[in-house]
Design a protein that fits this description.
Blueprint lengths: L1 H11 L2 H14 L3 H23 L5 H37 L4 H23 L9 H43 L1
Helix pairs in contact: 2-4, 2-5, 3-4, 4-5, 4-6, 5-6
C-alpha cells in the first residue's frame, strides 16, 4: 500500500499546480477588452456588496465612480491571488518530496516566477494586452506569501500532528 501511495499518488500531487497554470494562461488568453470587462464587473460587485454591508446609500453614478477607482487594485489583487494559489500548489508537493527550508523557497519561487514571466510573454501575443515586468513583480508578492504559508502550515503540522505519529511508529518498532 505504501509503495502504491509513493509511486502513484505522490506524482499526482502536482496535478493541482498544472490545473492552476492552465487557468492562469487561460485568463491571459483573454483580449484586453474581455479581461477588463471581467475585472470591472468584479469591481462593481465589490462596491455593491460594500454598499449593502455598510449601508452607504450610494447612487448608481457614485457606485460606478468607486468601481472605476478600485478597478486597478482589483486587477492587481487578481495577480497576487492567482500566483498565491500557484505557489501553494507548487510548494506543497515539493514539501511532500522533502524539499524544505531555503531550497523550497528557491525552487518553488523560481518555478512560479518563471511561470509568471512566461505568462507575461504569452500576453504579448494577445490583442490589447502586453507584457509587464511590474506585473511579474506583483505576481512575485503572491508567490512569496504562498510559499511562506506552505512552510508555516507544514512546519506546524510536523510539530503537532505528525510528530506524535512518528513517535508511535518508533515505539512500535522498538516493542515489535
Amino acid at each position: 500500500m505504501r509503495t502504491f501511495l509513493r509511486v502513484v499518488l505522490k506524482p499526482l500531487s502536482f496535478l493541482p499546480a498544472v490545473i492552476v497554470l492552465y487557468m492562469i494562461f487561460s485568463f491571459s488568453a483573454q483580449t484586453g477588452t474581455q479581461s477588463s470587462e471581467v475585472s470591472i464587473k468584479i469591481s462593481r460587485y465589490i462596491v455593491v456588496a460594500a454598499d449593502r454591508c455598510l449601508d452607504l446609500g450610494l447612487d448608481p453614478v457614485r457606485a460606478e465612480e468607486l468601481a472605476q477607482k478600485i478597478h486597478f487594485y482589483v486587477r492587481k489583487m487578481g495577480h497576487i491571488t492567482e500566483y498565491f494559489v500557484l505557489a501553494v500548489t507548487v510548494s506543497f508537493p515539493l514539501y511532500v518530496y522533502r524539499l524544505r527550508g531555503i531550497w523550497l523557497v528557491l525552487v518553488s519561487g523560481m518555478l512560479c516566477v518563471t511561470a509568471a514571466a512566461l505568462d507575461e510573454y504569452h500576453q504579448s501575443f494577445v490583442a490589447g494586452r502586453g507584457p509587464s515586468v511590474r506585473d511579474v513583480g506583483i505576481d512575485s508578492i503572491g508567490i512569496l506569501i504562498g510559499i511562506m504559508v506552505v512552510r508555516i502550515v507544514c512546519f506546524i503540522g510536523r510539530m503537532t500532528i505528525f510528530r506524535p505519529l512518528s513517535r508511535r511508529r518508533r515505539e512500535d518498532d522498538e516493542v515489535g
